[in-house]
């Protein structure tokens, strides 16, 4: 069945899908043809003014509490990138453990029943089963794992496990990539906090890909008397967990230690080698990171008592049938005076380096195993590497601090970043060849699909090397046809998709701008130019509006001139013009410029209906086939949205663009989707009754047959709320100054994924951790008014969401990352660029919203010369020669 073709399996609603061609057996079942349902999204959103005002507040990290029953669905991806899915649960224990190259679709494959307001429908994983019935942590603890603390004071010993049942209250702070979990028992003299997550260092894709989860546990004595504290952590042997047979051998746990670590390495000791390697053939490891720790390879911690902390051993062999082959690592005991803190750090690692059978036939790269397998032979080697490089965890914490130390609302920062967690799930792979590859959602829809992944803005900013690899190796290599067309699923398709083609060109330009020099573009310009030429050729009548029927992300081939596709191609041509100019290809730059000018003019003249942009039918086909036509489509000005993300500036009329966005707000956004989806049935449940969102495509003028004469199963998409598209619109609204609308829309998504209802870290479309949701990072880019061009040494900030006279936010560049801040006092403004990692080379700095004047620039105590120039809506500093800001240095700019 085609990727999301679910509607034909569901009950057909006379109200919502009567236009679908019916099979012969169904003819006559609907004696009266019902009219298309009336548009029923209210223009007055009736939003509470106080609630809207609260969206601007800085606030605190989103916290989920045990006492509010908010922990059971929480599953934060807590391992390295492309190393399987390991979830950090609300009480701090790990669950799911999808590290065995599981072929099942989604994180919890199942079919559930959902009533759409008309009938019960069967909803598969790719249709939103995990949205309707989220996976529960307690049901998916594949491996036994946990921590406990032994507290000794006043002659008494108390043992508390870090699990929900042992505490009066647990508070989970959901700030990806490091969660903070607080354990509260008012009777205890200690405060216990755990910080946990994978190694996550922007720009360092290799070290961020380690198959491991780190715990940083703090125990603070807040009482008056001394307290002796010991921490224990344990992990079940994960080798051959699923396929082990008694006759094959034994599970083996071995104590290991070194200068900076001690713990247990677990694998399987074969006595009879199997004919074929199993997916769960590998190893796991738990290490205490530091000196003086102890280990016990044969622990059986149920229940955990004080005596459990006194056991030690060297090696333990257990029957393959024994499900509790648990190894334990202990911190050194420490007596804490009042106010003092013990800090115990642990690394839990895994290593299952096998090709994925489902992909072997078409992906040659799987034969080389996975990227981490080229670096390490076992899980113990992974753990030892982390122990020998403690700066990796400290850099992770530094990014976490840098990112959230901002004037922007905390909830907005969370939602913008957390979707990059899809890279730390089984949704993506990095093979031994170095190739990055991804599904659309976990194990669903293969091929790093260009028309889905091009919405994602996060990876290109946080790990640009991965995006450069995907452009160069796959899109401009494996997937490129002789005529320049880019097959939108590479090995898994045979034709291009027009939106994917344009989006790939835009991403080539973004990846160029996120590079330190122009070597990436120079190396790939010839193929990039071919891709652009193919795209330009799809405009048959030469008016700058592509009109060749081709596949698009709504899984259909639309006829005619379609605003969202034409606009996306215009943006791509504008990016191509810039690239051609940088490559000194004046003739081609001119060709692209002409296309952009014609396209922008005709977008306004031919595709604007006076309120919003539309789909002009094909002159021959008319409205016979499926299309958006005169309806209000969520992506209608997507090209301009992309232009802001890529630093391309304004394309077509600002007034018409704003009118289109306001129409989307008026006609497509609703604080409660319930009334709409009950009358416009057939969509998947990605937002349900009582939840707000922006519907994909609406018929505000109540036209009959608004989507064509012969609509097909794809019509169901129009009645849904898909978060990736919503994030794209929110980022565009933010860029255009519609901050209220951008914040409300994003907060509605944030609230849909509140932990009381479902996993906050899993935005769902076609399966779990859907790639398109990484569009959320674009809203941060827009809020900062951020532009960057590494080869030109240019950076710019024009904050759209300022907290009074102050603004502070993180940034990432080609060679480093840090924070930008500005404070204004009358006619004087103080700007800083603080580099926290790597370095940043600049020739020009743009300061949007800052009036010109005298500029004083200092770096490392030295005064720098700079010329002040007027910018479009502010000013620009130009240095006579490039300036490099190094790690832990801050550039100070005073404008008066």
UniProtKB/TrEMBL annotation:
This protein's source sits in the domain of life called: Bacteria
InterPro entries referenced in this protein's UniProt entry, alphabetically: 6-hairpin_glycosidase_sf, 6hp_glycosidase-like_sf, GH116_catalytic, GH116_N, Non-lysos_glucosylceramidase
Q: Which Pfam families does the annotation name? A: DUF608, Glyco_hydr_116N
| SUPFAM superfamilies per UniProt | Six-hairpin glycosidases
Leader sequence range is 1-26
Task: Give UniProt keywords alphabetically.
Answer: Signal
Where is the Glycosyl-hydrolase family 116 catalytic region domain positioned along the sequence?
A: 499-777
Report the residue ranges that make up the Glycosyl-hydrolase family 116 N-terminal domain in this protein: 75-389
Q: Which PANTHER family match?
A: BILE ACID BETA-GLUCOSIDASE-RELATED, NON-LYSOSOMAL GLUCOSYLCERAMIDASE
Q: Specify the protein name.
A: Beta-glucocerebrosidase 2-like protein
Q: Which organism is it from?
A: Chitinophaga chungangae
